[in-house]
Amino acid sequence: MLILCVATFSAFGQALPRIEVRFANPQYDRDTRTYFLDVELNAKTSPEILFGMNLRFFYDASAMEFQKVDDFHQGYGLLGAAPVPAVGNEQSGQQLFGFNHAAAYVNGGVQLLDERFPLQISTTSWVKAFRLSFKVPMITLDPEHFCPSVIWDLEATEGAGGFLRQCGFGDHGC
Description:
Elements: E1 4-7, E2 10-11, E3 14-15, E4 19-29, E5 34-43, E6 48-50, E7 52-60, E8 65-70, E9 76-78, E10 86-87, H1 92-97, E11 103-112, E12 119-121, E13 127-135, E14 150-152
Antiparallel strand pairs: 1-4, 2-3, 4-5, 5-13, 6-12, 7-11, 7-14, 8-13, 9-11, 10-11
């Protein structure tokens, strides 16, 4: 399942630009058992330049294991250390998303590191910002039809696009 999410932000009563973000171009390398997803951006109202963004998402921990963020648009990279997934208990995936097993959560940041190469976000097309990669376990039953769920966590607040507090994941209670 590829999830398209629209995030609208406001600060001090003033609306900030509307940017859509999506996972795109899923690829599965059967030889290395690696699953790749591009992260793409599109501006809804006017062209924008990306400075930085939160990288927060959930996935089914029984279907794959997060490996890394790579293939950044030139000039961009991770802010701080590479994100490490937090895996909830066996019920977390069912409670949050209907998975059969535990959900895993990744939280990190991507930022412009070299101002000579700002990413132009267009209103007329999608632009790739970076890529996620996951290791797929040998037990995957049907690699031909492998299409795992990866779900953006848009907000830190439950009910406003966020999922963490629904099961105490923020306290690692799920």
